[in-house]
Amino acid sequence: MRTERIIAGIVVAVVIGCLGILATLMIWLGTWTGLGTGLGIAAAVLLLYGLIFQPWACRWGATDEEAIAAMPGDELVPDADVTTRAVSIDAPPGRVWPWLVQIGWGRAGWYSYDWLDNDGRPSADRIIPELQHLRVGDIVPILPGREPSVCHLEPETSLVVGDTQMGLTGCYLLKPVGDNGARLISRWRQRKSHNVLALAWSLFGVPGQFLLERKMLKNIKARAERAPALDRP
Q1: Less crowded by CB within 10 Å, the N or C end of the chain?
Q2: What is the CA radius of gyration of the chain?
Q3: CA-CA distances (angstroms) from residue 125 to 11, 173, 214?
Q4: DSSP track, 81-140
Q5: Looking at residue 46, what is its pLDDT?
Q6: Is the CB of residue 131 less than 8 Å from the CB of residue 107?
Q7: Would residue 164 be called left, alpha or beta, if left means φ above 0 and alpha means ψ between -120 and 50 degrees?
Q8: What's the pLDDT at 166?
């Protein structure tokens, strides 16, 4: 699949780039000095990543209260790594909900970087009537082979998709703000693991997920804030 090939290519390119930098330092400074310098730089980068970037990326846009508040679906994967991200939208929840209810690979898309997470197909730029009737138990594919189902749905308020066997849940929560605004809060929970795959996810998955979801939230905001007439099919 195109998406999986692109992700694999990005990971390989990053690894090759890091090895290339290390080899250059070893040639420039000498084998052992270059190796030590490279490892020192790597340790400093990882320290800054763990202390600064990862905590910020995992709760981008969310307030302190939103980051710690309970959300629907939290109980499905209790021991989990959690990301909580949010965006303010100048439109009421009723204008945001139709864009949320049609998300998914092979549906309206994810409103993000379509060349990466939607197999190169553009995400919908309009409300699709036939995708507005989502029910508990329906499938919302992330990618082929990763197909969580709807676990909870409260119209214009919350949508939870998840697969407890995969140890993965995602919740989109809408809260009204004033007379004509909303907060869209996204929370993803992934069962904790303590192996090399967990380390790989921390180094590559978290930044990738952050970039994709940030783009998604901003694009949902832009779509919902358009004049209502533009949303008619």
Answers
A1: C
A2: 20
A3: 30, 21, 18
A4: EEEEEEEEESS-HHHHHHHHHT-BTTTTB-SS-HHHHSTTPPPPSS--GGGS---TT-B-
A5: 79
A6: yes
A7: alpha
A8: 82
pLDDT, the chain, mean: 87
Q: How many CB atoms within 10 Å of residue 88? A: 12
Which structure tokens are listed for 74? 């939290």
**What is the pairing mode between strands 168-177 and 158-163?**
antiparallel
Closest to 168 in 3D by CA, of 55, 72, 106, 80? 80
Question: What DSSP string runs through 187-225?
Answer: EEEEE---SHHHHHIIIIIHHHHHHHHHHHHHHHHHHHH
What residues pair up with 143 in beta bridges, in sequence order? 146
pTM of the model: 0.84
Is residue 223 within 8 Å of residue 125, measured between CB atoms? yes
